[in-house]
Amino acid sequence: MKSRNYNIKQIADNQSVLQIYLYGEIEPSYLNIWGDLVESKTSAEYIRKAIEKAETINGIELYINSIGGYVDEGVSIYNLLKRQSVPVTAYIDGMACSIASVVAMAADKIVMPSNTTMMIHHAVGGCYGNAKEHRDYAEQLEKISTASTNSYLVHAGEKLTREKLEPLLDAETFLTAQEAFDLGLCDEIVDPVDLTESKEIVNDAQQK
Predict the structure, then answer these.
(1) β-bridge pairing 188-190 and 109-113
(2) Is 121 a catalytic residue?
(3) Catalytic site residue 134?
(4) First to last CA, the chain
(5) Distance of CA 124 to the CA centre of its chain
(6) CA separation for the pair 195, 30 (Å, rounded)
(7) Is the model's pLDDT at 207 over the cut of 90?
(8) Tell me: the pLDDT tens digits for 27-40?
(9) pLDDT average, residue stretch 172-177
(10) What gap in Å lies between CA 93 and CA 118, rounded to an integer?
(11) Are 96 and 24 in contact (CB under 8 A)?
(12) In the beta sheet, which residues pair with residue 189?
């Protein structure tokens, strides 16, 4: 059986939540040198299929630990989640950097343990060509940045303005949970998860 990056959690009779784990680089699926499809479990298509297979759900929980990745995939995931009719909650399990932080903004509620971080910046990329091609590419990057980073402003509401956001994007800013909360990019700060108790439960189960 192939491993998967999502799970259905029963929360009550006839109620369930889809849990999606966005761990690792956000990237599309691709064809390898033999022509076989290598499926990415962090692609927009993979998440779309997970939601489709889940059928009737009462909510979505998105768990993020990612350095970022492909902007187009991340923006697609963001819009896919925004279209859902059920509540979406994002949990930052480690880091939400670059386009992964944009994906988090799709959630109705963003939760960050106090030992996690978020990194925001303008879109980056490379170009090979003459001076005109470099200028054209720079304009494209600016448009991509403006479009994708609007997500921060939408989620933050009155807490954040474009004038306050731009310098943070220029500086490729790492934000603590508290800093993200103050900017409106996080809605709740919690203490780091204490795994001691759960480990003891697992050990007891294994001994039995």
Answers:
(1) parallel
(2) yes
(3) no
(4) 27
(5) 18
(6) 36
(7) no
(8) 988 878 888 888 88
(9) 96
(10) 11
(11) no
(12) 112
CA angle 204, 207, 208 (to 5 degrees): 90
Q: What is the DSSP string of 70-121?
A: -HHHHHHHHHHHHT-SS-EEEEEEEEEETHHHHHHTTSSEEEEETT-EEEE-
Condensed to tens digits (0 to 9), the pLDDT of residues 52-91 reads 998 789 999 999 999 999 999 999 999 999 999 999 999 9
Strand-pair category, 59-66 with 88-97 = parallel
How far apart (Å, rounded) are the C-alpha atoms in residues 25 and 4? 16
What's the pLDDT band for 154 if we cut at 50, 70, 90? Answer: very high
Q: Of the residues 43, 66, 76, 121, which is catalytic?
A: 121
Share of the chain above pLDDT 70, in %: 89
Is the CB of residue 42 less than 8 Å from the CB of residue 5? yes
Model confidence, pTM: 0.84
**Pair 126, 203: CB distance under 8 Å:** no
* Phi/psi at 176 (5° precision): -75, 170
Q: What is the pLDDT of residues 106-136, one digit of tens each?
A: 999 999 999 999 999 987 767 788 888 778 7
- Token pair 């720079």 is found at 138
d(CA 40, CA 47): 10
Q: Which of 43, 98, 148, 151 is catalytic?
A: 98
Q: Which among 61, 26, 59 is positioned nearest to 41, based on CA atoms?
A: 26
User: How many other CB atoms are found less than 10 A from the CB of residue 206?
Assistant: 7
d(CA 105, CA 17): 19
At 15, list the tokens: 């109620």
